[in-house]
């Protein structure tokens, strides 16, 4: 998915440039780490309290 987003046309994904810079700067997490964070978030006692959440926190 990351590769597809970084190579997307900016008309389809306006934030493409920012996403590509995150990759260049080494700031994207691996798929395994992202999955670990999502699963940990889902297991939190307050899961569902917020309509929109950021798993990076």
Commentary on this structure:
There is one protein chain. This protein is mainly α and 57 residues long. The chain has one domain. The protein is 46% helix and 0% strand. It is built from three helices and no strands. The protein is elongated, with a radius of gyration of 14 Å. The two termini are 22 Å apart. The mean pLDDT is 84.
Summarize the structure.
The protein is an all-alpha fold and 57 residues long. The protein has 3 helices and no strands. The two termini are 22 Å apart.
Classify the beta-strand content into a percent band: under 5%
Shape: elongated
Stretches where pLDDT falls below 50 for ≥5 residues? none
Broad structural category: mainly alpha
Radius of gyration: 14 Å
User: How many domains make up the coordinates?
Assistant: 1
Helix content: 40-55%
The helix tally amounts to 3
| Main sheet makeup | none
| CA-CA gap between termini | 22 Å
How many beta-strand segments? 0
Mean pLDDT score:
84
Order of helices and strands: HHH
């Amino acid at each position: 998915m990351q590769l597809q987003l970084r190579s997307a046309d900016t008309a389809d994904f306006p934030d493409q440039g920012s996403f590509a810079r995150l990759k260049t700067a080494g700031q994207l997490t691996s798929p395994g780490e992202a999955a670990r964070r999502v699963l940990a978030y889902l297991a939190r006692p307050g899961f569902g309290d917020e309509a929109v959440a950021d798993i990076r926190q």
